[in-house]
């Protein structure tokens, strides 16, 4: 049990085939108490209920700073602490550079980057008080290679911002024994990719992946488990690539 009795908050974790949901399931299997946050409170509660009575699901808009602080305070009031935060909430848009308008840019960067900032700010005071905590930020291979398959340049920019923010947080929070690391998934089979991959496109993509398969949400969840647990107790400011070798650098 790598997370025995740890209180673990995961944002954007209600989607059935998503990385957040898979992470919540795995954390629960390892003894953690999964707190699922999502825009849809009913879906979040349902997802948590499927894991068992020890888990909770709340509504939270990560682009709303007050909502993030309210959610964190609610968790602490009920469970006494927050040990782990996984900043997973994010959206993508398959737009070309010249097609990105102000609303597109704001929508994508608000959830991925602003949401990571606000939710982290909400939990850090509680972690600092206990001199213990792990924050995992979900970025993307798109941030590293300059573009993805299903995300436009504004998605790459937002996810690159997450990497920079996480490293800066790691440097500042290390003295409080709060670790901050990032995960950069490659092409993962989730609701975002569902139905969009033709056989021809899949075959073409696999040519560039040395492990010759697409990733599953569970592949990313296992990486989050490692970074959330004491197995990575001397790791902070790191970026863990989970892409099957799509990007080797």
From TrEMBL:
SMART domains given in the database record: PKS_KR (SM00822)
GO BP annotations listed: fatty acid elongation
SUPFAM superfamilies linked: NAD(P)-binding Rossmann-fold domains
Domain of life from the UniProt record: Bacteria
InterPro entries in UniProt: KR_dom, NAD(P)-bd_dom_sf, Sc_DH/Rdtase_CS, SDR_fam
UniProt-recorded Gene Ontology molecular function terms: oxidoreductase activity, acting on the CH-OH group of donors, NAD or NADP as acceptor
Keywords: Plasmid
Family assignment from sequence similarity: Belongs to the short-chain dehydrogenases/reductases (SDR) family.
Name of the protein in question: Short-chain dehydrogenase
């Amino acid at each position: 049990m790598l997370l025995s009795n740890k209180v673990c908050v995961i944002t954007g974790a209600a989607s059935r085939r998503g990385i957040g949901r898979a992470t919540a399931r795995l954390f629960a299997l390892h003894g953690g108490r999964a707190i699922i946050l999502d825009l849809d409170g009913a879906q979040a509660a349902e997802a948590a209920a499927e894991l068992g009575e020890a888990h909770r699901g709340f509504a939270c808009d990560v682009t709303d700073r007050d909502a993030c602080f309210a959610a964190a305070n609610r968790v602490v009031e009920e469970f006494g602490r927050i040990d782990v935060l996984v900043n997973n909430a994010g959206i993508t848009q398959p737009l070309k550079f010249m097609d990105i308008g102000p609303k597109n840019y704001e929508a994508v960067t608000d959830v991925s980057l602003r949401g990571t900032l606000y939710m982290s700010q909400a939990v850090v005071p509680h972690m600092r008080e206990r001199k213990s905590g792990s924050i995992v930020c979900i970025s993307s291979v798109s941030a590293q290679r300059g573009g993805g398959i299903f995300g436009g340049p504004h998605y790459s920019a937002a996810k690159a911002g997450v990497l920079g923010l996480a490293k800066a947080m790691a440097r500042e929070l290390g003295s409080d024994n709060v670790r901050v690391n990032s995960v950069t998934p490659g092409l993962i089979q989730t609701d975002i990719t569902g139905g969009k991959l033709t056989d021809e496109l899949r075959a073409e993509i696999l040519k560039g992946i040395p492990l010759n398969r697409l990733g599953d949400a569970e592949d990313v969840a296992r990486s989050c488990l490692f970074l959330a647990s004491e197995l990575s107790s001397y790791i902070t400011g790191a970026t863990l690539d989970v892409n099957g070798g799509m990007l080797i650098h």
